[in-house]
Amino acid sequence: MKIADIDLGERPLFLAPMEDVTDPSFRYMCKKFGADMVYTEFISSDGLIRDAAKSLAKLSISDVERPVGIQIYGHLIEPMVEAARIAEAAHPDLIDINFGCPMKKIAGRGAGSGMMRDVPLMVEMTRRIVEAVKLPVTVKTRLGWDDETKNIEEIALRLQDVGIAAITIHGRTRAQLYRGEADWTLIGKVKNNPQIHIPVIGNGDVDSGPKAREMFDRYGVDGIMIGRATYGRPWIFREIKHYLATGEVMPQPSVAERVAIAKEHLAKSIEVKGEYVGIIEMRRHLSNYFKGLPNFKQTRLKLVTSTDPDELYATIDSIAETWGDFDVSATVPAPLSHDL
Fold first, then answer.
1. Which residues are 15's β-sheet partners?
2. Within this chain, do residues 261 and 284 fall inside the same structural domain, yes or no?
3. Which structural domain, as residue segments, surrounds residue 287?
4. What is the pLDDT of residue 329?
5. E-strand stretches of the chain
6. Which of 111, 185, 290, 291 is at 20 to 30 A from 200, Cα to Cα?
């Protein structure tokens, strides 16, 4: 599969952009475990053009992450065009437009999946961004606003006509948020439409090798994007690739391996963001590496309250000593609630 000139190989796996999750350290870990392409957290166009520090910080990418996309969102054309130019100056491999976020604070003001209520504006915004930058432009969106307006086929064709290089489709409407099961039938319909010639990437509820293979085989998608299932489980990319290659389900990492992964992730977070911020922002990840361990409450409390790196590393090491013999084969972290 190729997005423009970016060769991602056969059946590539993508890390979904997720607010407060897909920062540089997490992207680094997912890339290490086999993610073929990763994305930044989604970035506000208004924040970029105002030089807001938080938004500008999200533009930080490194060569080890490549190929990497920067995702932007907004509801007005001119700020989005300017944000795309700013994002391009950070030298990602592509620019992705977020037409999929269902959160009220974003969709309610017409950005994210809110754009699906005004398809002509969505198309014009995309056309202007494609014309403004030299990088490939891709889009992530949903099936439609609600059950009565599942217009993703029309949207995909119109966005293709204005020059997008690929489309990612989450198998829910905006009205569903993250309730119920993702419906891949319309994703497959878009992919198998003879007028569609850009890559179609499916997204929604893929959390295992067997599920990924089912989606590839049944719907013919070019790639699969994984969001919530990566939380506390960056090794899911390794698991899925192993299953696609061999048909065998890979055992879950042992407690000792999770300890090593957590320590490497923590070290990377501190390296990228400094000691205090690196530790604070790792809290959302650390305890999730060890979900399912019995009698873990006190240790979890230490993981999410300590600000001393030595103490934190010692606490992580103690997990291997205390739970090293625990069978983790059935432990899979609870998914995120805001895969975008």
1. 226
2. yes
3. 255-323
4. 76
5. 2-3, 6-7, 13-15, 38-39, 43-44, 68-73, 94-99, 137-142, 166-170, 200-203, 223-226
6. 111
Q: Which residues pair with 170 in a beta bridge?
A: 142, 203
pLDDT at residue number 339: 43
Q: Distance between CA 209 and CA 203 in Å, rounded? A: 14
Q: Out of 80, 101, 212, 336, which one is annotated catalytic?
A: 101
- Look up the pTM and report it: 0.94
Q: Do 279 and 173 share a structural domain?
A: no
Q: Is residue 175 part of a domain?
A: yes
The CATH number that applies at residue 305 is 1.10.1200
Distance (Å, rounded) from C-alpha 265 to C-alpha 269? 6
Residues in the chain: 340
- Tell me, what's the pLDDT at 177? 82
30 is catalytic: no
Query: Tokens representing 209?
Result: 């090798």
* Residue 2 within any structural domain of the chain: no
According to DSSP H, which parts of 172-235 are helical? Answer: 185-191, 209-219
Structural contact between residues 137 and 129, judged by C-beta atoms closer than 8 angstroms: yes
| 121-124: long-range contacts, CB 8 A cutoff, minimum separation 24 | 121/77, 122/155, 122/159, 123/158, 123/159, 123/161, 123/162, 124/77
